[in-house]
Design goal:
Elements: E1 6-14, H1 19-27, E2 32-42, E3 45-54, H2 64-82, E4 85-90, E5 102-109, H3 114-126, E6 130-138, E7 143-150, H4 154-168, E8 171-176, H5 179-182, E9 186-189, H6 200-208, H7 211-222, H8 228-237, H9 245-253, H10 260-269, E10 273-281, H11 282-292, E11 296-305, E12 308-314, H12 320-334, E13 341-345, H13 351-356, E14 359-363, H14 367-372, E15 375-377, H15 385-388, H16 393-404
Length: 410
Amino acid sequence: MNDHTTLLVTVTGRDRPGVSARLLSTLSVFPVILVDLEQVVVGGRLVLSALVSVDEGVAPGVSRNRVFAEIRAAVDKTCIDLDMDVEFSDGNGRVGHASPEQLHVTVLADPLRPGALGAIASCVARSGANIERIERLASYPVTSFELDISGADPEVLRGDLSMEASTQGIDVALQPSGLHRRAKHLIVMDVDSTLIQGEVIELLAEHAGCAQEVARVTEEAMRGELDFEDSLRRRVALLKDLDASALEEVRDRLVLAPGARTLVRTLKRLGYECAIVSGGFSQITDALVERLGIDYSMANTLEVVDGKLTGQLVGPIVDRKGKAEALRRFAGEAGVPVSQTVAIGDGANDLDMLQAAGLGVAYNAKPVVQEQADTSVNVPYLDTIVYLLGVSRDEVEAADRDGELDGPAD
């Protein structure tokens, strides 16, 4: 008989308190080292796996097979007492071998069907990679699972996953593993059609009676068909002589994107700083800063003289290049490396910012933006961004409960 290096013990059965404690207590009387341990609960059923190896420092020269045989007998008895099933298998000698580069695949869908997740798993397998762990991050407002994988070429797999996600109608993000993932401490968001629903300039244009013309120019600019600065100046010129009171009316009509409050509240409670950068107007974004507790902001400023808009802008233009510069400046002020920032946007003028960030997320974005961003989210809930950061729905709710002790965060 082969003298196996490790023993894998897998216990299954009805979940209840104390199972893991009993298994570990049983193993504790043997001269073994705990190499790995994983526990999951699915539909009230527990799956608990422990990988052990003989501690040569405590029991030099001892037969591993003899120790493992004694463990089998003891664990069998424990599982009979617990009314659990147990399976033993060779651990394939995994002790002391570092895993290949680890990657995270995050899947978002509403709803998520087995075939879609199976297609993603098949895509991973075709790349020669191995799925080491699957964890559910959320069941609402969308379903999200995270797959920990190893042995893949990130660039090749990213392209394959993107095509499969498009075919299945789901969102998939691929990111490297490591502490830096949870160390992203600055999130920078576009405002119009990202943090809020709709475009502010179009709301102002309704007051000025030029809504259709402004909307047409806005759409061309967001698709990247027009230079943003030129298009902005053209649209602002159409607002000439509009009474400044319209700004207050628009502020009162702002509707946040679904999940916007939850996203900002959760990230701030988890230690993130939040910023907004907008091709819109500071007269509007300043209200959002106060309303949501935003840490940094930058936007264009409408010129107002004698209570009316002049059709001109004051100061430098926040355009595509300006948004990327703002992200870098905010990161510097926050003391966060640019590689540890997250940017979210939907339009062509967000592309430089998305590409400069450590993680660029195209949120319900135009095709040209989705093609060039690190990942895309196409569900109508802004707070699903937290799942891309490895934050589960349980952690969101725990942050909310902790925050209640200090009063509302909004």
